[in-house]
User: Fold these one by one.
Assistant:
Number 1:
Amino acid sequence: MKKISCVLLFLLIGASITWAAGTKKRKLPPYEFGSVTINNYSQQSGMPPVVFDHWIHRQYYTCRLCHVDVGFGMSAGATKIRAADNIKGYFCGTCHNGRTTHNKKAVFDSCAKEYSREAYNSRCVKCHEIEKSTLKEDQFFKFAQNLPKERFGNGINWEKAESEGLIKPIDQLEGVSINKAKLKIQPDFALKSKVEGMPEIIFSHKKHTVWNGCELCHPEIFMGIKRGATKYTMIELFEGKYCGVCHDKVAFPQSDCQRCHTKAVQ
Amino acid sequence: MNTIPYGKTSKQLVLVLSFILYAFLTTAHGQESWRTDFDETCARTTDAMSLSNNELKVLIAKCDQLQTIIEKQEETVRKVFLKRLQMCKNLYVYVLESKSASEKTPK
Amino acid sequence: MKSVLKLYFTGFRKSIVYLLLLITLFICIDSSQAIDRFELGKIINTIPPNGPFWKYGNVVMRRKTKKAGMSPVVFSHWSHRQHYTCRVCHVDLAMSMRSGDTGITRADYTSGKYCGACHDGRVAFSVKESTNCDRCHMKEKELQDLENQFNAFASRLPLTNFGNGINWSDCLSNGLIKPVKSISSANIPMSLPDKLRNPMKLGTATARSDVSFSHEDHFAEMDCSNCHPDIFSIKKKGTEDFSMDRNIFGNFCGACHMLVAFPMNDCKRCHTSMSNISGV
């Protein structure tokens, strides 16, 4: 009975979404942009889904650290993180183990096999969010206050914040990351737009390698070997392919046309 | 309290214990060695562009070797390191392909 | 007796589940369109020729004001769009296109966000002055003032019989109004790509009803992201169910052209070969 009603509910919601075509999607408030809800196993084991906020983490760590060295996937739910993985010290548990320190404060421990009511209320719910807390919202605005502003996404210009040294994301984690030679930055290049008169896209490897390593984008996201051989369309990008893997979800949204279409038309 | 006679049984015990210890040490060592192998193999992703075709091929072969070892590991380790290995191997393959493609069609 | 009661209760519970399902069904059907029938009825009753010109495009915000014991905010688009393009508020100031979506709070606008960006005592009257509350939280007198202001303003502008009774796009192209495109030097809007300058011909069932759509006219007021990709996915033939019905209910063009921009009873504006006058 319950299952049938659930299925029906999903169908109805699905139908209502298709019917709502041609309307504006809700614009996420800046503190919700880049938040990911993970619910592979949570609810079936009696826990609310995990709400992960990119903004909390990316002020301290680069994308590469988590998405290459720790091994997190690039889409919500793809990694299939289990509590056991965290307990063993992988994924979230890589840092969230109660021992790792950050700014001389221990990073709170993630999952446990057994927990008291007290621990449930103080520890589990930190990630397995029961209800939206205004505390996090306040924290966000306090954090964002002194950073360069932007109209879209988190309302924070992360690129500028990093280049001005206002945030210093860590790229290496002792015992997890591999000691590598410094990355030789590939040159920036221009991509011509298909639409005549649309400003050219200047792609900056430099701006991207601050946060990422080569293996994060190549060849999984961008597999083209010869520059300019693969044609990317805005339709595909809006559907979440190529640039859309990060931009719109975590990095500044693609509605900010001029962040990429920067080169003036000659 | 009985005193244990220093006889055959205790000798056997020592032998067995040392075997167990040896087994433990080797597995521990084995684990270490594939980790260092992994670290060494995947350390070249930052300068993959400057590697020669032969160097890349060697690295890719190493990745394949590592894959069989990692596949025998415990579930979580397998999940994390197979993903990490896949990413670095794919990059090497990608760089190799792009190099051979550009060699075929000189500018 | 007991078993009867039990049966009654299980049956009762089942019926509750069905009732809930039914309710969700209705909610879904209701939410399927951007505005529901009741809302549309209200709009049609107020838009010219059924309602006064000065009320068209006014947004009444009462979600939060009632709790605070204030009169609802009456926001008039006409008084703002003569000075600023749509994009200034709906892109740069992050105002949503749907009423209630932005969730503006007093703390927001007193700290310089949303309305407070201009209503700071320099560009426009300050939201912080206690004497100014009534200027947005309007009562009878202020509403009357608003109407008078509208009449004074509209008297010098070209007439249409729809919407505000003002042909805004004519005003814009004739320079009768000169709305600002940006209020910050950091956000200079892009110029329109040449390829999009010519009006698009959109085919319909009969040639007589074909639509002429001008990117240029829309770009004069807005940015790409106001419409793309949410309202119009940029796929060729990707816009499904693009019917007049859906439009009138606030989807697609209806997102603006029923509430703020000229309403869809002004057929001729888009269906250029059609006529608004009966018998012609």
Note: The two ends of chain B are 89 Å apart (CA to CA).
Number 2:
Amino acid sequence: MSAGALDLAGHWLERGRPDRALDELSRVTGEEAVSARAFRIRALAHHLADEDAAAVDIARSGLAAHGPDTGLLGVLAQALADLGRTPEAERACLQGLALDPEDVWLLCTYARMCGFAGQHDKARLLLERAAAAEPGARPVAHTRAVLAIARGDHDEARRIAAGLLAADPDDAGAHALRGLAASHRGDTGAAYAGFRAAAANNPQNRHAVAAARELRAADHWLLRPLRPFRRFSAFQIWITVVVVHAALRLVGLGAAATPAALAWLAFCAYSWIAPPVVRGLMKRGVL
Amino acid sequence: MTSTDPLLQPTLQRQPPGTGRPWRLSSQGYVAFFGGTLAGTAVAVANAVRLGLPRGRVAGVAAAGAAALAATAALLVAGGSRIGATELPVLRVLAVAAYLVQAHLQRERDRVFVLRGGEHAPLLRTGLAAVLVLGALETAGTAALAGAVSGAVAG
């Protein structure tokens, strides 16, 4: 009975539903409830539910009870990394990789940490090792896309996410990655589609839900004037503003430069005030 | 538990931790444009620390601001401390140029913050305070400096 509940909890985790996994885990009793596998699933469920402090505690309790375990060390490393405790996270990763240098999940976790710290060459080598250990592994492709976004290579990220979605249209992570890559390029429509799909596949992922809600609001006509903020980079927008401002003054239209600057200020104020108002009204169903 | 594998040697043990939720990089542009170099740089340096940027990068953010401030002062000294129709747009260009360099230095770490599921803090209140207080301070300070220099030259 309890082994069945544990299997079911594992299944919900694979479907990206940590809430259901934790429900199932609460039904597990006896020795099974304190097994290494139960600790792994419980810690991972808390990590996926964004409760990283709890995930760290559970993973450490599991390690204390059962000794070194690559699965528990992997969750511990990810939870610590998300809490910003990078040095501790690296130690957990390396401890796990000392047990199994070919563990794909640990190699991907460590590659992500190195890439996030700007160590792109090391990240690439770690991913190559993971790919060699398990050719065609999806976590490797996911991590490649994440690292491409971190480097600012959004076209590469979009290409990888498209490949993942072609193989599995229900891949919530790939939908979110497609959304993230598109939002960095200012493509609101594609970004919304990506996050909406990710949120639909996993309503527990509050980041995907919030991003989908935000992007749905961004598509509303009241916020259309703000499209340039998403489409163009800060660099392009500010260069344009400054050039227009300087040009007006330098050609002797100083009288027009002040109203133009004030109009820009009003537009900026609109860009700060309007989005939360539109989001709030949409939430209440008024818009 | 140590490994001899060169790829599995620790390289992240000296990563400075972030100190808080950073502000959006795009929001910092407003502070630079409306408040000037000093206000923009103060916000950018505080944000670089919040993001947990390495010390060298934080120094780079500060140096970009310092260079723009030096150019601002030089411009006012040359113009005889009066901020006229010609100087004002150039001061804005300098502040925004410094901002663009500062934003570039912070961009990658900011993307990583978003990738980790972080949510930016609102800059409205701090930004407004920086524009009003530091903007006025910069205007008064650089004008006083330019006045002192031109006074010394005349004397």
Note: Chain A has a mean pLDDT of 87.
Number 3:
Amino acid sequence: MEESNDKKKKSRREFLKKGFLAGAGVVAGGSLIAAYVDKSAPESGEKVKALTTNGEIIEVDKAHIKTPRVSIEESHKGIPGRKFVMVIDLAKCKNARKCVEACQKGHFLPKSQEFMKVYFLQDSDKSAPYWFPKPCYHCDNPLCVSVCPVGATYKRSDGIVLIDNERCIGCKFCMTGCPYSTRVFAWKHYPEYEKDGQPYSPEASSPGKEGTVSKCDFCPDLIRMGKLPYCAQNCPMGVIYFGDIDEDTVTNGSETLKFSELIRDRAGYRYLEMLGTRPSVYYLPPVDRQFPVNRGFEDLEESVKNRYKNTPYGKNHKL
Amino acid sequence: MEYQSTKEKLLQEVAPHLERTTWVARLWIFFLLAVIGIGVYAFIQQVTKGHIVTGMRDNVVWGIYIVNFIFFMGMSYAGAIISGALQLFRTEWRKPIIRMAEYLAIISLLIGPGYILLCIGRLDRLHYLVLFGRIQSPITWDVIAISTDIFGCLIFLYLSLLRDIATLRDYTALKVPAWKKKLYSILALGYTGAPEQEIRLKRATDIMAAMVIAIAIIVYSVLAWIFSVTLQPGWHSTIFGPYFVIAAVYSGTGVLVITMWVFRKAYHLDQYITRKHFVAMGVLMVILAALFGYFTFSDYLTKWYGSEKNDESLIRILFSEYYWPFIFSNYIGVLIPLLVIGIPRLRTINNITFSALVVIVALWFNRYLIVVPTLESPYLPIQDSRPEWLNYSATWVEYALLAAGIALFCLMFTIASKFVPVMNISEMSETPKPEEAVLFQSEESLL
């Protein structure tokens, strides 16, 4: 018992440390997880320092650092003693779409598949519109998991809901089961899937496979390396906080907060609470906003901008 | 003696359909095969290029494939319930048409599940449904229910065919190839019509009749629950089980009427399938129309009256984008049979058949309106700049496979009618006598 408490404390310290490091954009080679260098991947141009087994510090291209992914069997278990949670601060989101792009790059997704989607919502005519990033909610009562006929999607002990695309038969029942339109289907084979080059693991949700369902996975492969999920790492505004609900801690990479206090002080809520799905993602309401909402329309690709044309705001302001 | 002579006369009447295939029939079969061929080509396209060739996308993940699935399964349940009920209640007018209802039950049951397979992204993993099946999933319920249903309906059909097969085996004047004769004699299982055999057969048929009714209701409810267990506004409704059952029997009755009309024309059965049969089916259709209208009204009234945000937006779509299909499927599809059969002067064979046709098309659209608009109005608004992501419209692949399914249905019916007569000649040869279903009788009275 004592030992496990000790472990917990240690892992918490580690988590915080790594969280900060990830936020600063540095990969520490001395993490407990072994990494290897694979020079076949295209260079990103970004160099990082890594510690080799000989104790040398070398500089390698960031894209060349590869970590062996956990097996499908292992991916069912969940990281022991953890319960992950995400907090999204709507007051800070200005639709920079860096979360979407980083996520697509990290999961080797084509542009037409988004695990993270940014909605432009307005609850009623007179209420204020706001930007609404939407990952998978990793519900504690996930309907997608209940309806899957083959157990291809599953809930882990750490709260993460994953999909095994080696098992998925592509019936899409989970897609109709999910009330948040979270899941995406591979309607064909996309060339982006081939860019990964590593063996498949549900924890990485990559490489994708035609005819199967996939979705946001909370990036357990990154968590194992002590990093934040792609979306949280790459948000320039620090909108996305990620952490452990049992440790009562969330971080966006630059600031680490007590989850319970954050939710209490900022009146955090979960989206469509009345559906009873019990999401693991909390939102902080868009109050005292740092930007006017229309900043979100700046520097958008035409196809992305067109998405919001049919919203009440879009119509009124002739987007 | 009278029994024998009626039988002889009937056999002479139906024998030509079994003995030879006219060039019109050949042309018809060739046409059906061509349509099926196009469907096969469409299917190959879908397998090789991926589901991208269909109109389905991430929001509307199920399109007309699932509509066809519900539709064909509905026809099957109607066939099962009608033939089962007519058998149990010993309805006299059932005799010339009960075989068609049984064929309807099994043929559409063999085609229907094919459509759900078309929705499956990885057909190469289909066996996972058995290998890794989870009983918690309504799809697993469906797999169990449908396979039970296929089994039940096959047994019921076989029991009902048995006497006719034995008759054909014994009918020496029948000019069919030797292999067909041989097949009759194998399939007849040594049935000679001995009193003991007859009682056993009747008892088995009655048990199966009761079973297929029960199975049909369960299977179609399970199918409805695939939709209603989800949280989607428009699907998440307690009424869906019974609503689907009623809609199924309603549309299937329409199909049965069309089948009666077609075989009456094609095989010149005017003498046996008369206006009486059409009116009887018509009356059944009126009752079902009223029930269907009532269920539809209850479902939409409760959604509209409370006007919950998502229900309201669904109703708004139904009354704007889908206005005509909605009016057609839920108003015209109910009112036409009520008028045509309700007014005695209008009750002609052709009018009843026409209203049956209206019912079939209306009910297909009814299922479309249950599936597609719901998926087009999820909780989170669809924000996408790709038109095919916003609104579903079926592609040629899906329509080709719809046509192929209908063609396969017609083809199987044609082939079945070439093997065993579409009318139950053994039952028709019996003189009408007051008789109760074996199930409702005591043991002693049987002996």
Note: Residues 1-33 of chain A have pLDDT under 50 and may be disordered.
